[in-house]
Here is the input.
Amino acid sequence: MLHGSHGTTYLKNPTVSVTWWRSSFHKLTDSIWFAYPDVILVDTLDRGRDDNLNQLHTNFSNYIRNFNERKPSDRSLLTRLYRLEVDDHPVESDTRSLECMCPTTSTGTLRALTSAGWTALEDNLLDQLGVNADPYIGGTTCLPGTRVEELSSVKLWINDFDAPNILYISGGPGTGKTALARSVVEMVEDEQRCGARYFGSSSNRYSVELWRSVSWSMAQFSPDLRRSIVSAIPLVDLGDPMAVYDRLVAEPLKAYASARFDGPSPIFLVDAIDIFAAPQAQESWDSFLKILTAWSTLPKTCKIIITSRPRQEIVDSLQGTGHVQMIKLVTGNFDSGEHHAAINDVSVYLRYRLSEIQRAHKSSKEKDMQSLPDVWPRAEQVEKLVKHANGWFFWAKAAMDSVEKSLDPDRTLSTIASTGAKMKLPEVDAMYNRFLTDTFSRAPPDGFHAFIGAIALAKEPTTVHNICRLFSDRFPSEQSAIPLLTGLQSMISVNEGECLALLHPSLAEFLLDSKRCDENDDFVLDRTRTRRKLAIACLRMLLDDKDGLKFNPLDTGFSETFNDLHLPNGSLLGPSLLYACDHWASHLADTSENTGREVEISRLLRELLQKRCLFWIEVMSYKDKHQQMFKSLMTAHSW
Here is the structure.
């Protein structure tokens, strides 16, 4: 038996019931006319055998329409009809069967008709996935000369089949993940290796739609994948993400990888996977993480690139598999090669946007538009912009959008260059407000102000350990700070030394300004109160009986000379105590005397000077910070 695409069965014996053959043939051609009404080949058909072809039109079209309304459990019939039970390709087999029916019609015409018939059936099945068009959303790619190292790393990974088959690109909001993803899509499309591309949006927060879209794209990538997917669709619960992944993605890819010889290996890209982590879709997010882990078991030729804001659960899921390679997109918060590269990339972007604004200004017919100086932009303006952007594309874009929309671009540019992160940029503030609302539901968690305030106003990058030690009343252990750190992880940069810094200085200015943080006023940081808390925390650390200053704090022998003494990172002085030694006076100087807490500060300061001053002087001497020590003592005296 050879099963046909129209719901009946072709018999290999051509002598059986000529009337039945003719009827079956007409049903097939009717399906073609229904799906492809403009096919020229219709005019070449031998219509002399039956004058009532139009009466057969309803049979096939109703069959497909009714199938669309059936439950998954009732679709086995169509699967049985589609499944290949002979070695021949269905198009070739159906063509030979039709040749027996229509000897006066050319083989080429019949082959085209049967191919179109199968395509019509497959298209109707693929429609069940709910993806009616290519899900790709075009947009901005990386400018030439930017993200050079990242794109080079991606290209090497794509062609390295010994490398892990998952590439995770993470970065805070506005660091250029989507632009990089679009550039990667262009790269793999040039090589005809784009198996699927999916760009997440806030309107789609359920991962099952992602895997249906991936399956649909796979069907367009390869005829072999298409046949595997189409034959499985009727048997799959299309509302179950794990079932869709197993039957419509993983199994076809495994079969394709094992049978492929010289064909291209597909590359998959999913941008903004954290969109599936919405609170209202937690079950969908959990299943996505399981599927992501399962992907690592696929052949290494089946490569997928995912992007998201930093999320520890993604890292935890993938690192356990050992099949992940990671690229982190950073801003310019720390002194390292990758941070310098980010600053250089943003510099290229700023100069490009300014040149475009200048070009558009010259051709503008706006009557109220102020003229630009002969030399614009000035070098010092650009240098200040690059410094203020600090490697963050989002701030740079918001600043350039503000200049572009202004009727006096030079004045606006000068204002931004002089105020930097303190300037209110609507796009930046809207993003911060949206982040606080989405992450914390408008209610700051316990310890938020102490934790974020310490990062925002610290005199140097600090660590979670330091914050927990300085604010031990708020965070009795580092573990107690993890929920808060998890919520803030996309807005915080962490270097190799585990030092923390805000994604961009504008976040501190936003939180410290009640007029800017107006939609989430409970999150506003009181600058004076935060400074006072830091000063008190440093003084308490110095006076702590267990971890504070003690006699002979470095546990050195008295026979050693000063030049022989060094302060190794692993000394008895912990990093939080070293921070307190260095900066208690500067935090004290930042604190206003009219705070209502001067009594406590005075008490702590008096105790330090009376009981621990010599110990502190010893530490500062070892660190060769004599000038800073004298300034600190003068600050204490003035207090």
Observations:
- The chain has 25 helices and ten strands.
- The longest strand covers residues 166-171.
- Strands lie at 2-3, 9-10, 166-171, 194-199, 267-271, 303-308, 324-329, 462-463, 492-494, 499-502.
